[in-house]
Amino acid sequence: MTQMIIPFFIVYQGCPNRCIYCNVHKTAGNFSERITEDTFRKTVHKYLNHPKRKGNGAEIAFYGGNFTGMAKDYQAELLGFASPFIEKGLVYGVRVSTRPDSMNNEILDQLKRFGVTTVEIGAQSMVDEVLNLSNRGHGASDVSAAMEMLKERGFKTGIHLMVGLPGDSQSGFEYTIAKTITLKPDMVRIHPTIVLQDTGLAELFLKGTYHPLGIPEAIDMCKYALKRFAEANIPVIRLGLQTTREMEITGSIIAGPYHPAFRSLVEESMFFDMASAMLAAGQISKQEVIFSLSPKDVSFFLGHKNKNMQTLKELFRLTGIDVSVDPVQERGTLAMIVDGRKSIIGRSRH
Predict the structure, then answer these.
(1) Model pTM greater than 0.85?
(2) Beta strand pairing status for 253-255 and 195-196?
(3) Per-residue pLDDT tens digits for 179-234
(4) How many C-alpha atoms does 38 have within 13 Å on its Cβ side?
(5) Where are the domains of the chain?
(6) For the CA atoms of the chain, what is the radius of gyration?
(7) For 3-260, CATH number?
(8) Among 9, 20, 129, 191, which is 20 to 30 Å from 294 by CA?
């Protein structure tokens, strides 16, 4: 089933403090401060009636703030807007994003009554020092406690992580990945840290006390994360920030590893690594080779403007590279065909 997410943004609402990297007006786009029932209904119908919609699955989502930290009456009001769509079978549930330290039994019971199916937690890191430097206002233990409460009540769970936060490191990020895997979320989102206008992080960057990751560093760290989560059968449903019109305004993004197709860069790099490993292991050189892959992975394997193909040919002095599309081959896998035999060596992701 193809799932459609119908997003609504509760800009900054329910947040007890402003995180050092946060400018949700840039990352969420142009949404009203308060959602009215009329706006809600029109927006849901617009998505459901979209001519390019595929599949029947749809879920209403509330992002951009701390849903369970808002006034309980406003939570109930928003969830009440969604109830008729659930009852009619037009959507199958609601998902919310929230902080790990804004949950209690009463709040979670209300979410359950109103048809909330998925709760995504903004953890960002599992290193307390990193959380403190980002002004998160919670610790790693709060993430573990929140996940336990959600799983006890049967919610699907997601965890949001960030790479390149102040005070973080390669080892710190690897620790965060390992701890996240032990919590067994149903899904993960990973966002490289971007320096946005009008944030505390922008002030630190301009003072020279914060140095963001470069795109190559961010790609390498996210490749590691994708591999580890794939091994644990935990899907990474988003990698990189979704571009909004507000982010495209000159000066909105001050620094950091931003790219509108960041996940594609990571996937391309992973396919390049796999192909390189296969060629090196087979001691393939000065000949034409054939790689087999899923049709949905062809663009990742080729790379932007065929960069992967060109680099592989030069690096291994190949006379040519051919691509064989196999519609039944698993996505994220790569095979090299030698003497008519196919050998799959690895996966780029889950």
Answers:
(1) yes
(2) antiparallel
(3) 999 999 999 999 999 999 999 999 999 999 999 999 999 999 999 999 999 999 99
(4) 0
(5) 3-260, 266-347
(6) 22
(7) 3.20.20.70
(8) 191
